[in-house]
Amino acid sequence: MHDELRIGICSERDIVLLARQFSSGDRGVHAFRYTRQQDGRSTYLIAWLGEVPVGHLDLRWQGAEESLIAQQHLAEHAELNGIVVLSEYRSQGIGRRLIAAAEQMARERGFREACLGVNIENARARSLYERLGYRDWGHGVVEATWLLPDEHGTRHTEQVIYLRKELDNW
Prior knowledge:
The chain is α+β, with helices and mostly antiparallel strands.
């Protein structure tokens, strides 16, 4: 990497640039995550190389929300959600750094465990999470459902397995 990677908290002025980089110009998901952050429900972390956003992670403070069973079992966890690194920047440690930053923030807020959901077909991501100490939550595959924050309110569903990790208090 030529520019130094930095992890920062999303600001309102970042939303348009994030939409351009990650969502084909759709501001909805990034604006939604920023609004959640402003409400205190999450912290939206952005990975930057120079002035270019190359990854993001939505750190949710109220546990997993996309399925009822996850809500029941993971309510006391910090949830790492929406973890994305642009394809041309993968395998360079960016996802690992985003996750480390999120885990540190969770520790600082007193969380003892973190969780994340991974699509059952995303073996590459699951492998990374397991290398970082995340383990199967023990309740099987669930259907995670959410509405996309666009003008259509599109319902999105995927089959996920939740993974959890105990956070060391260091």
